[in-house]
Design brief:
two-stranded antiparallel ribbon, mainly alpha, 267 residues, globular
């Protein structure tokens, strides 16, 4: 039981490093952090092991710029399997590679924390994702190596696929209260398994909002709750948000404002 609880904790912190770190911090720059905390977030990201942050950011910025087109690395128009994991099983198309070279990644390329991760990726990912979570249960409470290893692999797979649902399910199933002209949707299942990333129609409408959720709605949005907690300690600051008037205006123009107001009675 202790090992299961430990791996659940690794799942939570690893997932947060993707949603709060690779996604909201480094890709969209929705908030700022103190440098020691950035190193901490980078290490947590190694526990999740979903490419280096440099590569993750490049793919995700490309996804937003060319969402659901042939220049999108995980184009949802090619189906659920492809957008979920198929895109990782094949080489990137020439168009994806070509458009990727046009992105501005200067902030990532000049970030010493992320360049450190890229330089020592083999050792950091190997230790943080596989060695450390396996060895700790064995040394600290006498878990068998076989059980510790396989539970950690299960933890890794669950974290990985939980993140991937944002690319697949949240682009194919759900509703669109903010912009009916794009594929991303609001999907509660995705929010549940990804730590709050399922408010995807909102996120593609306002990608620079650190909450990645409608009007501050923290229901199922674990990532935002944790970021707000860290902000109280001053480790996280300058958090960008879209104001209610802007959000309502967007819904009136291209979405379904009645659904937005109905879900947010405080407006």
């Amino acid at each position: 039981m202790a090992t299961i609880i430990f791996d659940l904790l690794m799942h939570i912190v690893g997932g947060f490093s993707i949603t709060g770190g690779a996604h909201r911090l480094w890709t969209h720059r929705t908030y700022k952090v103190k440098k020691p905390f950035e190193y901490f977030m980078m290490f947590l990201n190694c526990i999740a092991f979903q490419q280096t942050v440099v590569n993750w950011v490049r793919d995700h910025r490309l996804h937003h710029k060319y969402s659901d087109t042939d220049a999108d690395p995980h184009n949802a128009r090619r189906g659920l399997f492809y957008s979920h994991i198929g895109w990782l099983c094949v080489k990137k198309s020439d168009l994806v590679k070509e458009r990727g070279k046009t992105l501005d990644l200067s902030d990532i390329e000049n970030n010493p924390v992320l360049q450190f991760q890229k330089k020592y990726a083999f050792f950091l990912f190997g230790f943080a994702c596989f060695v450390m979570p396996t060895v700790i249960p064995v040394l600290c409470w006498g878990e068998s190596l076989n059980t510790a290893w396989h539970l950690n692999l299960l933890r890794y797979v669950l974290t990985f696929h939980g993140s991937l649902t944002v690319n697949s399910f949240a682009h194919l199933y759900g509703y669109k209260p903010y912009d009916e002209n794009i594929m991303p949707t609001e999907n509660y299942f995705v929010s549940t398994v990804s730590g709050g990333e399922g408010f995807h129609n909102y996120h593609h409408s306002f990608p620079w909002d650190y909450r990645a959720a409608e009007l501050g709605n923290n229901n199922l949005n674990f990532t935002t709750v944790v970021l707000d907690l860290f902000a109280k300690f001053g480790w996280v600051y300058d958090m960008k948000t879209a104001n209610p008037e802007m959000i309502i205006s967007k819904a009136k123009t291209s979405g379904d404002v009645t659904k937005v107001i109905e879900k947010n009675k405080n407006i």
